[in-house]
Amino acid sequence: MVIEGFWQEFLSATNKNPLLKHTGDWCFDLPEHETNYLINLILSGKKTATTSCLLSYEIENDTLPQVGEYDILTDLDGNPLCVLQTTNVTVLPFKDVTFDICKREGENDSIESWQALHREFFIKEGKELGYIFTDDALVVFEDFEVVYSKSS
Q: pTM of the full predicted structure?
């Protein structure tokens, strides 16, 4: 109910159509210190994108993000922090991600560090979900913007 109350607060504060729906709420599935680091990057405006492996969407029978849709980012306890709106979605092979693309994630200072971090994550996720990650695997690069936060 807290999520829906936050959503209604967003709709009211931004004069959006009260019938507008969000696609869901989510939090990073990472250890607390990493999750909090990423949340702070988003709330500060330094992180405006995220990358997922396309195979995880297929295995979990999840739909790809769509431009214009809204999500609610939460903390690890499920408390809503902000509303994100998807501004662009690009599907491309992991090996074709450039630094100009990945720097929008706000986490790394080189393509090599981005690749190492994400390769490690996708290999671990693949073992958990049942896929084998390679550099040829397609990734979903989602750009977003914070359109509302608790501090708005």
A: 0.92
